[in-house]
Amino acid sequence: MGVVIVEVCDGNAITSLDIEGIIENEFPEVAVLMNECLSFCGLCRVKPYALVNNRRVFGNTPEECLDKIRQAIKEELAVYQ
Description:
This protein has about 80 residues and is of the alpha+beta class.
């Protein structure tokens, strides 16, 4: 398991991207967990989002959200360097 965990609701618009493959290839120290539901009812219908070490990250498009996830991962990894 990675030092950074990205959790994604499988009903979320961000799943239109191969979020698991993209993130885990770019950041080997990160684990992506696909969940049936993250219990933020309605948020997945409004905007693409994910949790990065339990912090909500969202964007207006899946691509914008992915960029913000990358930034949040870099911030989390900076703690360990």
